[in-house]
Write a structure and sequence with these properties.
Elements: H1 16-22, E1 26-31, E2 34-39, H2 44-51, H3 59-74
Antiparallel strand pairs: 1-2
């Protein structure tokens, strides 16, 4: 785990090794017990292509699975 502190102007500096691994742009997500930083890819479309490279499923099959998973998760 890595620690970082806000400066007097409220800025948070991420350590170099994290910036090199995840980049410099993030979405901030509020959670009940804190926040989460989600890296934003420099080229989001390329990131999606890489994520799904090699899959044998069609876009419709992937959408259907995502929908079914969300419905299942919401029903809990």
């Amino acid at each position: 785990m890595t620690e970082s502190t806000l400066d007097e102007r409220g800025r948070l500096t991420l350590p170099k090794e994290l910036r090199e691994r995840y980049g410099e742009r993030y979405h901030l997500v509020r959670l009940p017990d804190g926040i989460k930083l989600i890296p934003i890819a420099d080229d989001p479309l390329e990131a999606l292509r890489e994520e799904f490279d090699g899959t044998d499923k069609s876009a419709k099959e992937l959408r259907d699975e995502a929908r079914d998973g969300a419905i299942s998760e919401a029903g809990r």
